[in-house]
Amino acid sequence: MSKPEMVYLNGELVAHEYAKISVEDRGFNFADGIYEVVRVVGGNLFRVEAHLDRLERGARALQMELPLARQAFRDALHGVARANGTEEGTIYVQLTRGVAPRKHSFPEGARPTLVMLARPFRGATEEYQRDGVSVLTAPDLRWGYCEVKTIGLLPNVMAYQKARSEGGFEAIMVREGKVTEGAHSSAFCVIGGTVYTHPIENILPSITRRFTIEALRGEGVDVREEKVALDAFRTADEVFLVGTTTEVMPVVRMDGKAVSNGKPGDLTRLALQLYLRDLEAARGGAAG
Question: Higher pLDDT residue, 214 or 286?
Answer without folding.
Answer: 214
